[in-house]
Specification:
- By secondary structure, the chain is an alpha/beta fold.
- It contains 16 helices and 21 strands.
């Protein structure tokens, strides 16, 4: 395995060859565990970010993994970003502002890194802590919730909502598994309990609760006035049909207002600014190509909105900000990368190109598609492959996508004579297995890989597909209605 000192040279970008998907998480975990500032890993898209974060947690449970996702809406959209994505972004920024207690790995996407974020000063009062037995005045609590994007509802069911009934306040902090019920007597917190949002029944005691914003802007008097001044300076006189300007002027949330984020802040930073100056960067394979495509997408949507300003009739006006107000330019992107140590990964062998190239030592593992295509017994081929890997001195691991698929896969393997398997919870346990045993891990990667000392085969390598796929979380119907109601004549709709 390569070391941090040889990877991040101060004299420019280095190409890390031999880094197939899956192995990149193992490499990042090893590099992050060495002394030094946190490593920023930039993936080309959201699925890659989540898969890499999950795999890194398996390879190094002691790491503090900080994912920083992008907004889940298009540039210049009328819809707001999902509250869960925004809360995860804010949580990462808050944790980056605090001293590290263990090694850190920050994982983001090209889209997220290209978008400007609130400055560090926005996080100064971003956490409200509630503890059983402590004082929590009503005006302080509800004031914090109102300023920081929480929505008041009759019954709490979704993240970012709260409901007040006398001395009882229900709220659903984004990132929490269940909502919390705070029971107060006067200003004193007497009890806090989690509860089921469907049955409203308590499920457990909570001693301490840390609340963070669910929006990257605040509707306080200063922010509202800043927005109004900036909006008029950019777009001139405002008509009565400008619903965005009217809502913000009344300090009311408006669907899609986040796309005018620069007008709510005196200035914006980038994720780079929230990290130490000497933070090294690892670029995912094809990250530069993803950045180029993103720049083109941003410009295309901006020009479309500009053209609709003069042609749309009967629609609420949409006055787009210039792209460089909310997004980095291509020049800024290049300058930011030039200022830091950057390693660019590729799954292929060392390319014959000018520059500094290192072989990271990984390669694509055995894939049994040829056996399946020929009608052969894939489990006989797997048994032979495992024996060959052990004979070569490599530890062998079979990776399942979930705990359930691991159990089913172990049963199927046993039925085909591959019974020397042992479930493991993390990478450190693999080295402790007796000789001849194959580890069975929950490791959500699609393709296996091999190094000089290890070989990993995935369930997708063996079966050609996953045994089970994760179900997508159903979106709240109220949110769907809110987004549909924001559509106006002239908007693009993909169906």
């Amino acid at each position: 395995m390569i070391r941090r000192a040889q990877t991040f040279a101060a004299d420019g970008r280095v190409v890390l060859a031999g880094v197939p998907e899956g192995f990149d998480a193992l490499m990042l975990a090893a590099l992050s565990a060495e002394p030094g500032p946190p490593i920023l890993h930039v993936t080309r898209d959201e699925p890659r970010m989540m898969a890499t974060a999950d795999a890194a947690r398996f390879f190094a449970p002691e790491l503090e993994i900080l994912p920083f996702p992008a907004w889940d809406c298009l540039p210049y959209d009328r819809a707001s970003p999902n509250v869960r994505a925004v809360s995860r972004r804010i949580e990462t920024l808050v944790r980056l502002a605090q001293p590290a207690t263990r090694p850190r790995l920050v994982i983001t996407t090209v889209n997220a890194l290209l978008q400007r974020v609130p400055p560090r000063s926005f996080l100064d009062d971003a956490i409200l802590t509630a503890k059983v037995g402590s004082a929590l005045p009503d005006d302080r609590l509800t004031g914090f919730l109102g300023r920081n994007g929480y929505r008041r509802v009759a019954t709490v069911r979704e993240a970012g909502e709260y409901a007040a009934r006398g001395g009882i306040l229900d709220l659903f902090p984004p990132g929490a598994e269940l909502p919390i019920r705070i029971d107060r007597f006067g200003d004193q917190v007497e009890a806090m309990r989690s509860f089921d949002p469907l049955t409203q029944r308590s499920t457990g005691e909570v001693e301490r609760l840390a609340l963070m914003p669910v929006s990257e802007l605040r509707l306080d008097p200063d922010s509202v006035e800043r927005f109004r001044t900036g909006y008029r300076a950019l777009f001139g006189a405002v008509s009565d049909d400008d619903l965005l300007y009217t809502a913000i002027s009344e300090a009311r949330p408006h669907v899609g207002m986040e796309h005018w984020l620069p007008l709510f802040h005196a200035r914006l930073d980038t994720l780079f600014d929230h990290l130490p100056d000497d933070t090294p960067i690892v670029l995912d394979h094809q990250a530069d190509e993803s950045a180029g495509a993103r720049f083109a997408t941003i410009q295309d949507y901006y020009e479309t909105r500009r053209s609709l300003m003069s042609t749309a009739t009967g629609a609420a006006p949409y006055r787009p900000l210039p792209p460089d107000a909310l997004y980095l330019t291509a020049v800024e992107w290049a300058e930011r990368l030039a200022d830091r140590a950057v390693a660019e990964t590729t799954p292929f062998a060392a390319p014959e190109t000018p520059g500094r190239v290192l072989d990271a030592g990984g390669r694509r593992g055995r894939e049994f598609g040829d056996v399946r295509a020929a009608g052969g017994n894939v489990f006989d081929a797997l048994r032979g492959q495992l024996a060959a890997e052990r004979a070569a001195g490599r530890r062998t691991t079979i990776a399942a996508y979930s705990a359930g698929s691991r159990d089913r896969l172990r049963t199927v393997l046993g039925e085909h004579g591959i019974d020397a398997t042992e479930p493991v919870d993390h990478w450190g346990q693999v080295a402790l297995l007796p000789a001849g045993r194959t580890a069975l891990a929950v490791l959500p990667i699609e393709a296996g890989f091999a190094t000089d000392g290890d070989a990993i085969v995935t369930e997708q390598d063996i079966l050609g597909d996953r045994m089970a796929r994760a179900t997508k979380r159903r979106r709240n119907f109220d949110q769907f209605v809110a987004e549909v109601s924001a559509l106006t004549v002239g908007d693009y709709v993909v169906h």
